[in-house]
Amino acid sequence: MSKIICSAAIRGAHNIVDKAEQKYQEVLDKWGPDHPVGFPNTAYYLPIIYGILGVPVSKLGDVRPVLEKCRSLLPPLVSEKVWLPYLAPTLEAGMATFFAEEIIEAIRYLEYPDFYTKQEDPIGGNIWLGAADDIILRKRGVEFVDGTAPGFAAILGAPPTKEIAAEIAKELQEKNLYVFMCAENNGVRMSEQLVEAGVQIGWPTRLVSFGPDYTATVFAMGFATRAAMSFGGIKPGDFRGNLLYNKNRIFAFAMPLGPVSDEWYANAAGAINWGFPVIADTPIPEILPTGICTYEHVVSNVPHSEIVQRAVEVRGLKVTVSKIDIPVSYGPAFEGERIRKDDLYLECGGGKTKGVELTVSRDLDEVEDGHVEMIGPDLDQIKDGSKLPFAMLIEVAGRQMQEDFEPILERQIHHLVNYAEGIMHIGQRAIMWLRVGKAAVEKGFRLKHLGTIIHAKYHQEFGAICDKVQVKIYTEEAKVDEVLALARKVYEARDKRVDRMTDETEETFYSCTLCQSFAPSHVCIITPERTGMCGAYNWLDGKASYEINPTGPNQPIVKGECIDPVLGKWKGTDEFIFKASRQKFQTASAYSLVHDPMTACGCFECIATILPLCNGVMIVNRDYLGMTPCGMKFTTLAGMVGGGEVTPGFLGVSKHYIASRKFLLAEGGLKRVVWMPQMLKKELEAKLKSRGEELGIPNLFDIIADDTKGTTEEEILPFLEEAGHPALTMESIL
Amino acid sequence: MALEIPKVSYSGKIKEIVLGKGDKALTVGGETSYPFYLFEGQMPLKPRIAMEVYDSPPEDWAPTALEPFADVASDPVAWARKCIDTYGAEMIALQLVSTDPNGENRSAEEAAALTKKVAEAVDVPLIVWGCNNAEKDTEVLKKIAEDCAGRSLMIGPVTEANYKQVGAVAIGYEHTVIASTPIDINLAKQLNILLGNLGVPDGRILIDPTTGALGYGLEYGYSVMERIRMAALTQEDERLQFPMICNLGKEVWKTKEAKQSRDEAPKLGDPAKRGVLMEAITAQLVLAAGADILIMRHPESIALIQDMLNDLLAA
Using an 8 Å Cβ cutoff, are A546 and A552 in contact? Predict the structure, then answer.
């Protein structure tokens, strides 16, 4: 921690504790130790002291041990020649500061009972509200729990002008934050500036004028401390629980505006204990490493125009967008809607024009949240029935964002855009196809609104990974070409990354227990080379799903020591399966259909099973309705295999997994496959051919029998023999 | 050789939840075996039945259902009192149908004022059930929680769409939440996890697995309830070890069969008994699947179920 900050904070803390002791002695002499002292209408005594130390202060005599505690917490002043680490002592000095300030403020209530209005609003000329009573705490605290108010900005001092003050207040209000104000900057206070600027202050507008002095900071901190006790079930005296509750749940930060005095530093050091970082407008030293706070601790010299945005980023506050501001209806009901030729106003992509959509991640400072830009003609500048080249470039940034999540976000464009009434979207990447209907244009829909939709929905559905979203939409040929070139590069890199990823290179796999609702003991293990059997979840989906919804059905599994590389068994996966199947299964192979195959849910895209006569494996997909060589149709097979049971000899597989290098590794891989419906073969043709090459059997694709060759083992065996299918000479599968 | 009957070994226990406050407070839960399997474990606390009270005069009710309440149908407070004084109700469930935005769309303020009146008039535990419109319920239940602070109401349905808002007021004003999910064990578990993460104490969560009426999908709900109990008792699934509540009265009595007259359905027997029996059978089945709290309408079906409970639990 910066030595300058620490020295100042410790100095400030000493001053404040000195002041509290002095005030205390005065009132003790006057009223005696049995005189009641405290904040009005609260069951939490002096809340910071009560919450952190568990000491209920109700009369003057109770104060002395707290002051003694302050003394014992206070580290000696920092001397020039000592170069010890200062973090811990500084934080303790900050804690002592708050205890002392609560005492000072409590004494103020004693000496000047009407100094504060003791209610939600200013009364007459008195704008200072003082500590929130329990009614206010409960009413407002609920908003902190349910997220309607994610947190608060504790502002000390004031910006240079009342206009800037009003601007900062408005920006904070727009982020739904409470603004807790105290202290002065050269005789100027932000609460007073707001009143002068004609802004209404008080709890109802979330602009809370706590008090004129820096000691009123404790009203903000006391509010947070009480919220943890009242809503988090944290017991008085459980300081660790209280501080962690605040760090994890109350998105608060301190914002000193104006020169930072020793006393302000002391208060800032105190706030850091609660995980509340400091964002200053003056050039004080910065403390950037992560530690007590989620991200940076002290960020300084931030211009007033950027200070709110910066504070929100540093505290890790999520933006919430509750309404999608577009002139047409929006919802899943419109997803399947078609725009016919006669209703068509504009068409982009789909082979008619160039079209591309791309989601990429950027650094936080490269993205301006909510920025939607239209480059080129929009719908009101073109004629009915036009065609335009189209590119949508979505740039996202987030602390938890990873490049791996780009394709997952990008894949959402399809349904997100389709949800808009009168808009049709098909395909993705550079084969996207967009149609806008006449009715939508009449209602005022513009291409720019696509950006509005993406911005809102990315925040709503992927808030965990997206902190900022900006969208650029191009309908100028030259610009579209630029995006297209960029997109091609990105797609290539992405595809390579997925290709290179193997089960050996990744340490973490993901589970999927989504289907446990109807298949109670089913546990799917998703690895980079084995997608979920439904085909809907690959490894990256699992990873992103976990980031977005940590309590959901996709949990990370550290694979641990490998038990059998051919069967595909690891210590970590077995332990997970035992737990997640509720002790029903102890183990499962990722790559075998004979030895401990994985459970099957019911949603599998295909079923693989053994054809004993051919010494091989057949695969049938859900869409194939005919008979198969094993004597059962897909539906009959599905009835046998599903429900979370293990059925050796039968396995649910995804189409994608069939072309994986790990496909049925234990049984000899793709070489074992002797039959598939023709439709499935065709669908996988390119992949199967390239796998055949890899395996050194270039004609493998051609020698796999299909329903045109026969639908019984007896019918296909001669074909396989004639073709010299490798399965026939492999070791017995049984 | 004596026959040894195999027994299921249970590792879990359903949490005990206190309903209401004061002398008439009740506790449910505490099971250590499947429902009524008293030879394998304990069911120390009897399942409880709440009688329905509606916030606006019922329309379109079967005469059988309306008859016991005809004199109080337009006064929810009197209705609640009659349930307690005449029919010995151990709990009341106030159904706030009139708040439905597609119906009367009564305001949150009106609903809260009425709830407060009913809450003041009864001393038994009070369930407050919204109109199943998540957005409106949020507004209504928030206001009610605030205005009835400290009365320990059971409020619901709390869904994934509004658990944050309603959960927060339940914490702040000390009520119990009815965590409602659409017949899905995973969603039920997930919602309980989310409520826990929000800070709702375990002692204040009830599961509403969603109940269908006899002949109207009851079997789906039954299976999910069974599954929830299995996970809770034999599979150490801690987030499912909560008592279950079934709002079945209104499901049964809105079916065609419960309403048809003798002329309309001459083959379906005495209409005066038909609805009562349908309600009783539905109740009996959800009890067998693990229900701890039932919300029911007709005094006669309630009497039948009370009889059955006394028989089964006396063994």
Answer: yes
CB contact under 8 A, B165 and A148: yes
Return the DSSP state at B71.
Answer: T
The residue of chain A with its CA nearest to that of B238 is: A582
pLDDT band at residue A86 using 50, 70 and 90 as cut-offs: confident
| Residue A248, helix vs strand vs coil | helix
Degrees, nearest 5: CA angle A76-A80-A86: 50
Please tell me whether the peptide bond between A212 and the residue prior to it is cis, using omega within 30 degrees of 0. Answer: no
Residues of B with CB under 8 A from a CB of A: 142, 146, 149, 164-165, 167-169, 171-173, 184-187, 190, 193-194, 197-199, 201, 227, 230-231, 234-237
Query: Strands A569-570, A562-564: parallel, antiparallel or unpaired by DSSP?
Result: antiparallel
Sorting pLDDT into bands at 50, 70 and 90, what band is A82? low
Indicate yes or no: CB of A517 within 8 angstroms of CB of B230.
no
Q: Which of A350-354, A425-429, B67-71 has maximum average pLDDT?
A: B67-71
| Tokens 């929680």, residue located | B145
Cα of A144 to nearest chain B Cα, Å: 8
Chain centroid, CA A179 distance in Å: 25
Whether residue A80 has pLDDT greater than 80: no
* A582-606 pLDDT, tens digit each: 888 999 999 999 999 999 988 899 9
> Could you tell me the pLDDT band of residue A691, with boundaries at 50, 70 and 90?
very high
CA distances from B130 to A215, B69, B99, B133 (A): 45, 21, 7, 8
Residue A31 pLDDT level (bands cut at 50, 70, 90)? very high
The answer, yes or no, to whether residue A696 has pLDDT greater than 70, is yes
- Map A286-354 to HEC letters: CECCCCCCCCCCEECCCCCCCHHHHHHHHHCCCCCCCCCCCCCCECHHHCCCCCCHHHEEEEEEECCEC
Domains of chain A: 3-111 (1.10.8.190), 134-315 (3.40.50.2030), 332-483 (3.30.1650.10), 508-729 (3.40.1470.10)
| Nearest alpha carbon to residue A110 among A219, A13, A28, A18 | A28
**A329 alpha carbon, distance to own chain's centre:** 27
**Alpha-carbon separation of residue B94 from A39, A587, B50, B83, B166 (angstroms):** 39, 50, 9, 12, 17
> Rounded to the nearest 5°, which phi and psi values hold at B105?
55, 45
Give the nearest chain B residue to A513 (CA atoms). Answer: B186
pLDDT surpassing 80 at residue A85? no
Burial of B260 (0-12, 13-18, 19+ CB in 10 A): middle
Domains of chain B: 17-314 (3.20.20.20)
**CA B40/CA B29 separation, integer angstroms:** 16
**Overall average pLDDT of the A377-388 stretch:** 94
Please give the Cα distance from B180 to A72 (Å, whole number): 51
Q: Mean pLDDT over residues B287-291, rounded?
A: 97
User: Is residue A566 left, alpha or beta, with left meaning phi > 0 and alpha meaning psi from -120 to 50?
Assistant: alpha
CB count within 10 Å of CB A11 equals 18
Confidence check: pLDDT of A517 > 80: no
- Which residue in this structure is represented by tokens 């595809």? A495
A380 token code pair? 């009101």
CA distance A322 to chain B (A): 13
ipTM strictly over 0.90?
no
